[in-house]
Write a structure and sequence with these properties.
Lambda_DNA-bd_dom_sf; Rossmann fold; LacI family DNA-binding transcriptional regulator; transcription; 6-stranded parallel beta sheet; transcription regulation; HTH_LacI
């Protein structure tokens, strides 16, 4: 069987080349058996771009309201896709028996319906990302992702610098015992936030105090133990932690920020809307979405060109809503 016949079938030109249905089926069976996936980067060099960008979510994010965490990311993706002259194709993917969303179905990459894809959402399984990278399928992840053995493209908020600067802000207000409160589960964004907090403590010459706890376990007893260490300020991973801490403080007749300053490094899981106004770091969600699309289009336009493919965008510093001078000073 000639290479031209195989190429025609793979590129959906079998009828144009008058290839028999039997031969076409033999080629498709062989492709499926060998696990062949077309290299879209190579296709783009031959002018076969569809000008369609995929958007794949590892979490359920649709339908989406303005307050949802992913709303601004997706708004930025849509805005930049329009500017770049590309259509968007949404992939929600099939779920495996473990409930996790997969990029591959029966060994086939479902994203190949698009020229490339923007991926977002949390996933602990990086095997699909590694495979995409090995196949040279163009994609950009929203949020920093470490994939062992692969150097993938991503765009995300600079959580580490934001956390470091938050500590410096509290130190400038006289706080010397500043604790960090966040989830214990290891993920890139969480690791960056805690690393930035620790860097801020080192720069200020104060000891770090990481209090890693699940939100449902943040009780009044836990709060009392934290205060017993002499804490006068908290840097918390999300506003949801701050809301829980506020309830604990109120139960102990403590005032925020007079008795305890609090800085949040992100909005609640359901979006940047809270029961009260916190000194909260502003995440550049829309800018991240736009930058992810710009990077993906650049990869498609010049697949062999070297460029910065891992981008951190600065966050907006918090205001003084829940920051006050340390009562200890």
């Amino acid at each position: 069987m000639s290479r031209a016949v195989v190429s025609a079938v793979i590129n959906d030109r079998a009828r144009d080349q008058r290839i028999s249905a039997e031969t076409e089926q033999r080629v498709r069976d062989a492709v499926r058996e060998l696990g062949y996936v077309a290299n879209l980067a190579a296709r783009s060099l031959k002018g076969m771009r569809k000008r369609i960008l995929g958007v794949h979510t590892f979490e359920s994010v649709f339908p989406i309201a303005r307050r949802d965490f992913y709303h601004e990311f997706l708004t930025g993706v849509e805005e930049q896709a329009v500017i770049e002259g590309h259509d968007l194709l949404l992939f929600t993917s099939a779920e495996g028996s473990d409930g996790r969303r997969k990029l591959y179905t029966n060994g086939s990459n479902r994203l190949t319906a698009a020229d490339g894809a923007v991926l977002l959402g949390v996933t602990d399984d990086h095997s699909d990302l590694f495979r995409l990278s090995q196949e040279r399928y163009p994609f950009v992840y929203i949020g920093r992702r470490d994939v062992h053995g692969a150097d993938i493209a991503w765009v995300g908020p600079d959580y580490a610098t934001a956390a470091r600067d938050a500590v410096a802000r509290l130190v400038a207000h006289g706080h010397r015992t500043i604790a960090y409160v966040g989830y214990p589960q290891a993920q890139e964004a969480r690791a960056d936030r805690e690393a930035g907090y620790r860097a801020g403590c080192r720069a200020a010459g104060i000891p770090p105090l990481s209090l890693l706890v699940n939100l449902e376990d943040l009780s009044r007893e836990w709060f009392d133990l934290a205060l017993a260490t002499g804490v006068t300020a908290l840097v918390v991973e999300l506003e949801s932690f701050a809301n829980q801490i506020a309830a604990c403080a109120a139960a102990r007749d403590l005032s925020i920020p007079a008795d305890l300053s609090v800085v949040a490094l992100g909005g609640t899981e359901s979006g940047p809307v809270s029961e009260r106004k916190w000194s909260c770091v502003g995440l550049p969600r829309r800018a991240v979405g736009r930058a992810a699309v710009s990077l993906l289009v650049a990869m498609l336009d010049a697949p062999d060109e070297p460029f910065d493919h891992q981008i951190l965008l600065p966050c907006t510093p918090p205001d003084e809503s829940t920051i006050a001078p340390s009562p200890a000073s």
